[in-house]
Write a structure and sequence with these properties.
Layout lengths: L1 H37 L8 H5 L34 E3 L7 E3 L13
Antiparallel strand pairs: 1-2
């Protein structure tokens, strides 16, 4: 009988642990999503933006490396490809770039 109690106790523990882990994963993801919309926008005068030749509107880029259709929204560094306005970029930590923008580090997202 003692063995049955041990098995039941382990099962209960595993259920609670799995539920806690799942809840932590869901709750841990929420602040990240909420913060993305609150990030300050990168300014073209930002030192990193200048170094990467970032422009808010890709169609106005004068950089010879810019190709038509290349915008932040289709770059692998843009971490929210569904964003229509501004979204987070790995190259500008803590800031959001315009989905229609472009910089010299643009790397097309793999399908």
């Amino acid at each position: 009988m003692s063995q049955e109690k041990d098995v039941e106790s382990r099962r209960r523990f595993l259920k609670v642990a799995a539920g806690t882990a799942a809840a932590a994963a869901v709750v841990g993801g929420l602040p990240r999503l909420a913060r993305a919309a609150d990030l300050p926008h990168v300014s073209e005068s930002d030192p990193t933006a200048k170094a990467l030749d970032y422009v808010e509107d890709a169609s106005k880029s004068k950089n010879p490396k810019h190709t038509p259709g290349a915008v932040c929204a289709n770059c692998q560094f843009f971490t929210d490809p569904t964003a229509k306005g501004y979204g987070p970029c790995q190259l500008f930590p803590g800031k959001a770039v315009n989905a229609k923008g472009w910089c010299v580090s643009h790397t097309a997202r793999k399908a």
